[in-house]
Design brief:
single chain; 5-stranded parallel sheet; Rossmann fold; 21% strand; alpha/beta; globular; 10 helices; 33% helix; UDP-N-acetylmuramoyl-L-alanine:D-glutamate ligase; 243 residues; 6-stranded parallel sheet
Length: 243
Amino acid sequence: MNKKLVILGAGESGVGTAILGKKEGFEVFVSDYGKINKKYKQVLLHHEINWEEGFHSETTILSADIVMKSPGIPDQVPIVLKLKNKGIAVISEIEFAAKYTDAILIGITGSNGKTTVATMTNQILKDAGKNVALAGNIGNSFAELVATKNIEEYVLELSSFQLDGIKDFVPHIAVLTNLSPDHLDRYDNDYDKYIDSKFRIIMNQTKDDYFIYDADDSKINEWISKRLIKSQLLPFSVKKEST
């Protein structure tokens, strides 16, 4: 019997995950508490994926083996709390899709500048002749690209919300552009919780991976100084020369 994948939210990441999930043999069901955009409905219908809009069918959702939650849905909404209380894994698109690709992953996060850095990185690699794609919090769904394309390298712009939903995801290269208070309403107005969320990008890295970060950012330096980082550190600075 196929495992059941339930997807909360039928936006870019949700529909992309649905396509990949079906390709990988899951029984897929998409539920959106709001209205689903017409173009996404057409995609779901084309792939013969079951969906609902305007409500959540709790019995169906709570029977899932795994749930992919779109990043815009807070962790504290009732249906998510019920899933977690039942011990059902609630993950992000990034976590789900990464399991089905052997491509090199470059993850880029930060409070500011991540879109610019991700776009530039993608363009540099493309100009160098690499088989690369830009995804994550920008562009096309990472999951849909994994399902439909044979990409060798991904540049992923990652928000804190996406990083909150990872468990095993590990980018070979992680980039943290900077830190400043943002989206604190999702983190109990606790800046430290937000910072911890950003640093989840390196939590599964090993000595064979790389962490590029802003050495001029005091909060980044403070966090690093209190922890053992397994990956190779590559700081950058506009104020001092690296040693």
